[in-house]
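Section 5.1 Outputs to date
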Amino acid sequence: MLKIRPFRKGFDEEAYVRIYNAAFGDYDDIRSMTFEEMEKMKKSPSFSSEGMLIAEWNGETAGMVSAYVDRFREEKKGFVQNLGVLPKFRRRGIATKLLETALESLRKRGMEVAEIWAQTDREGCMHLFEKFGFKQTRITSIMIRKLDFIPNKNRKNMQLTIRGMQTKEEKEIELLNKLDNETFKEHFNFRPRTIEETKYALFEMPWFAVQKWFFAFLNDQPVGYCGIAIDEGLNKEKNLKWGMIADIGVLKPYRRIGIGTCLMLHMMQELKGLEMKDAFLYVDDMNPTGAIKLYEKLGFKTLRKSIIYQLPLT
């Protein structure tokens, strides 16, 4: 009656898209995926279809999950992603069997820890994960702020310059990659991003029709970076005017002197200039830089929280 089988490239993409949209389409910050976007996702340097699983109920596609192993990550941690079941097949134990099979897949590939996440309003998911023995490890937030009023920040006293990135210049891409890796190396789940991944994020990632990136220079030395992005598909589908604070990082010796504030205000002004009504971002509540306090100080409010769970596999 219930069968769990491997994802078949060139055959299961449309089913994957259909299940994804049914399972996650009601999230505030997630919109429907297209088949073309799925194809672009497969071009990511870190993409792998190994561990992707499809559930069939009496021969009909019913659900999916991905037991993902990041080939660039040294630690033996695997990730359970995109666990979803079509509405008409729910409450039949399919999600339980998918999760069980995903964990076994991670074990067979030598993973020592499994990680998964759930929004705090997904009580069914939380109950399922905890039944398997997953323990809460981290809490993250999506935060939002209206862009009707943005204060000015005078940066003349610290000789700070913020300029746009020339995204097609190799040296600029290398600088972005370097700053990204250096500013996030203390963070939870960090592993160095490759140049190829940075290029994919800039030029091929399917979600963002608009991206703008910026570097911060102090006395002509690069000390930080930031970026904004707009998902026009999300805004159209949800009838929003949201712009994303996609990333922000400041080198450790230059923190807590106002550079992060200047970068945040700069991005908010840029988003407002692009006619966005709200800015949103994601943050690890336990971020070692204390970023959530900066965002709260700048007027961002928590829209919802998610819990990251981990389970030992050995």
